[in-house]
Amino acid sequence: MSENELEARRTRLTELRERGVDPYPARVGPFVPVEDIHAEYGEKTEEELEAAAPPAAAVGRVRAVRSFGKLVFVGIEQDGVALQLSARKTEVPEDLFAAIKGLDVGDFVRAEGTLWRTKRGELTLSVASLDMLSKSLRPLPEKWHGLQDVEARFRQRYLDLLSNPEARRIAIARSRIVSACRSYLDRDGFLEVETPALQPLYGGAAARPFVTHHNVLDQQLYLRISDELYLKRLVIGGLDRVYEIAHNFRNEGVSRKHNPEFTLLEAYQAYGDYRDMMALAQGLIREVAESVHGGLVFESQGHTLDLSGEWREVSMRDAIREETGIDVLEARDLESLRNAAKQAGVEPGSAPTWGVMVDDLFSEHVEPGLIQPTFVTQHPTELSPLAKRSSEDPRVVERFELYLAGMELANAFSELNDPLDQRGRMEDQQALEAAGDEEAQPLDEDFLRALEHGMPPTGGIGIGIDRLVRVLLDTPSIREVILFPHLRSEAGT
Question: For 424-440, what is each residue's pLDDT tens digit?
Fold first, then answer.
């Protein structure tokens, strides 16, 4: 924006005040939403409107001003719906005509008048009075091209929403997807709850936390990386079906799949297991997909995704073996697994532990190819410190991760409810932390104490809302579906 234009707008602001006009009034006055005006009069013919001359009052942001000498047209928009205003110099007071003609794109106004239809068929409000609601001091992006720089779009999302219809569509669709998830769980008897975002001890996931400090209590606190351990406390407390749709925070990098602040849906069901969570995941995601696409087959990420029929199920062991020839459960220590990788012609990498190497092999060689909905089950116990061991093979746990379009969408367990086994697993995590694993989970004595009071067999699931929205709306990055994604600081700030 040029300094001249900025100064011109400030001059017009000053002139309004000198004329006794409050450019930022506290009250708006009665109006009808533009959408309702179109609903009532959008089908009326030119002749019908001329005969009835229906009165109307509308509010909105000025998006265009077109002057034809003695005739001015102003385009306004309210909640995404446009309406045209008009004023003819010979039909309105001189000061009103000047006020309309002097509007800037970005101003908010309230207009009263009568409705008519132009020769081109556009529903129009002939202005008899005009109120300034908010004077804009900076212009909007050019209407047809909007913000072209991707980082500028995310940094100034308010302008992106105004100039990019796709950004607005995604924002609205995301809200409706979250509402559909909530509706599904509410109908299934789940109770929505709230758990702390500031926690004295983090846990529930393998991630580095953000650390903060409470000054008055002189206490170190953490932004939650998961709400899992608090939701389990509620199950222990007798709330059999609970869920939370919450922001979690993980001190990690930024990518097409990751943002340090993200939204996670977690649900826990007493007297259930990971198989019940499979049914929940299928039912919820199918219902949400139908609400978005009207069916279970849709395009996303360059693939035709089909959510109908039986979803594939494969163990992590078999999935890795199919793609690499490596049997991770036969190579039970880091050195053996590296040797097995070399024999299979696979680069072993530099993973510090056996568990990390298994996860790396899966992420690199299996995950990108999981396009259609796939449940990956039976994860090694070392990778799942909060999940119940399989009664058939204690080397693995009752767990699945759900993949779609080459990306993990959900993670679920038969939750570990043996307090002694849980203590041993947490102690193992402490040993990993001492060896330098920054994502190892701490030992939580308060949670273990709660678990010793008894937790029923429980199934739990976490669904990444940002990723789910990204797949359903076919966007290239989760930054498109998060209204304010994390960005590097601007240069000089």
Answer: 999 999 998 888 888 88
Q: In terms of pTM, does the model score above 0.85?
A: yes
Nearest by Cα to 138 from 12, 53, 247, 46: 12
Average pLDDT, the chain: 94
416 — pLDDT class (breaks 50, 70, 90): very high
* 162-311+372-480 CATH, one of 3.30.930.10, 2.60.120.200, 2.30.30.280, 3.90.190.20: 3.30.930.10
Contact indicator for 239, 189 with CB cutoff of 8 Å:
no
CATH of domain 3-134: 2.40.50.140
Cα–Cα distance, 185 to 149 (Å, whole number): 39
- pLDDT-derived band at 147 (thresholds 50, 70, 90) equals low
- The pair of structure tokens assigned to 36 is 């309702």
Task: Round to whole Å and give the CA distance between 235 and 242.
Answer: 7
Q: Hey, do 3-134 and 162-311+372-480 end up sharing a CATH topology, with the first three levels equal?
A: no
What's residue 144's pLDDT? Answer: 46
Tell me: the pLDDT tens digits for 305-340? 999 999 999 999 999 999 999 999 999 999 999 999
Please give the Cα distance from 79 to 59 (Å, whole number): 10
Task: Give the start-to-end residue ranges of the domains of the chain.
Answer: 3-134, 162-311+372-480
What would the mean pLDDT of 360-388 be, rounded to a whole number? Answer: 96
